[in-house]
Write a structure and sequence with these properties.
6-stranded parallel beta sheet; globular
């Protein structure tokens, strides 16, 4: 790979860390490597988050890893909250209120001079940063100041994200200035959600010329080994794989309410339906028990990424929950693309927006607005009836799957990297692998 262009990928969430925030970055790294780039990943030595060591096998061969000490204030914040007996739902802890823009700013402050040094010595030719965490854009700004192009990626929105609703007005205003600086200074900006892209383009004239939508997509090879797995014939299986983002937009409460009402109206449901919440937060299990649903709604440990195809293929329907996006930025979770990769239809419980448009555009399944309980119940009953009749629920077509494969969705991003580069490559020796 000597002589190839080198892209510095600033990724707080990277294997062996697991969870939804990791998948897009791993796919970007693989797409860069396939296009002849040398990825150099700047990440943490340890993160207090879901761990999936097997995820390291998905990292492109030849990727160089530089791991920095992580202050891990997020873990300290959680310990402090437990020590105080917990906080009210949606209430930020002290560290979350004081550390701007997020709990990972300590790591980002350490990463910024490293990124700047790599750029100044031409050990990398371009820097790519992805948020959240939002502070991860700081190393991009530092590297750009030392002479390399900067690509900023928004997996979710920043100040327009539903998770920022509870912030005090002064902090929201300050973070909007930080956010505007990123959008103004980055040489190229990519968005994973159409709603987020539209929000920022409307807010910042001129951004459209430097920004693009790049859906995360799915990696076909992750699901190929599980083609033989089928859901059980004797019951209707629904699976939600990943966190439920407790206390954000009331998604969990609406889901539990709909399931409770469904089982009361149809006495067959507890015996004929199983809902699996794989990787849900621990507090979800308590909420399920309080609602009296524990017999047929199960909270299970997270599944390694390598096992995700098996988990999804064993269900009739993949459940995808969409946040309200009250500030304008509705995210598109990677769960949607994973369901397409596993050839399973989705039930998207989401208000109108980017997520529902994608489901309808590509024929990925059913959509119901969770704020309309009767619409949710009608969708559940319809799917249940089809399974009871032995009918197969249509999933994404072959053409839709081809369009949503990450080679297609992220190909334009890699092309954008190429457009930012002048001819020639770096002659600096590669950083040593960790």
């Amino acid at each position: 790979m000597r002589g190839s262009r080198r892209a510095l990928v600033v990724a707080y969430y990277f294997p062996p860390v697991g969870g939804g925030g990791v998948s897009r970055t791993v796919k970007v790294v693989r797409a860069l490597a396939a296009a002849g780039w040398q990825p150099v990943v700047l990440s943490v030595d340890h993160a207090a988050w879901v761990q999936d060591p097997a995820g390291l096998a998905q990292v492109a061969a030849g990727t160089r890893l530089i791991r920095l000490l992580n202050p891990d204030w997020g873990r300290l914040a959680r310990r402090a909250r437990r020590g105080r007996g917990g906080c009210a739902p949606g209430t930020p802890g002290r560290l979350a209120r004081w550390l701007v823009p997020d709990l990972h700013v300590g790591w980002s402050l350490l990463a910024a001079p490293v990124a700047a040094a790599l750029a100044a010595t031409r050990c990398v030719d371009l820097v790519y940063t992805s948020c959240p965490p939002y502070s991860a854009h700081l190393p991009g700004l530092a590297a750009q100041a030392c002479g390399v192009p900067w690509v900023a990626d928004f997996r979710d929105g920043w100040t327009c994200d539903h998770s920022r609703v509870a912030l005090p007005a002064r902090r929201q205003a300050f973070e909007r200035r930080l956010e505007a600086g990123v959008l103004r200074r980055a040489d190229r900006v990519f968005f994973a959600s159409e709603a987020v892209a539209e929000h920022y383009r409307a807010r910042m004239p001129g951004l459209a010329a430097r920004s693009e939508l790049a859906l995360t997509g799915f990696a076909p090879e992750e699901f190929a080994a599980w083609r033989h797995v089928e859901p059980p014939a004797q019951r209707f299986e629904i699976v939600h794989a990943g966190t439920l983002l407790l206390n954000r937009s009331g998604m969990l409460e609406r889901l539990i309410d709909a399931l409770r009402v469904w089982s009361r109206r149809d006495a067959r449901v507890p015996a004929q339906v199983r809902v699996r919440l794989v990787g849900a937060e621990p507090a979800v299990a308590a909420a399920v028990r309080r609602a009296g649903l524990a017999g047929w709604v199960r909270v299970e440990p997270p599944a390694p990424r390598a096992e995700l195809g098996r988990v999804l293929r064993a269900a009739h329907v993949a459940l995808v929950l969409g946040a309200d996006g009250p500030l304008g930025g509705q995210p598109v979770p990677g769960k949607l693309f994973d369901a397409a990769g596993a050839e399973r239809p989705v039930l998207a419980l989401a208000p109108p927006g980017s997520l529902t448009r994608l489901v309808q555009r590509f024929g990925l399944g059913l959509v119901a607005d969770p704020r309309d309980r009767e619409a949710t119940l009608a969708a559940l009953a319809l799917l249940h009836a089809r399974v009871r009749r032995g009918e197969r629920i249509p999933a994404a077509s072959a053409a839709a799957r081809d369009a949503l494969a990450c080679d297609a969705t992220l190909g334009r991003m890699v092309a954008g990297f190429e457009e930012l580069m002048a001819p020639g490559g770096s002659a600096c020796p590669s950083p040593s692998a960790s």
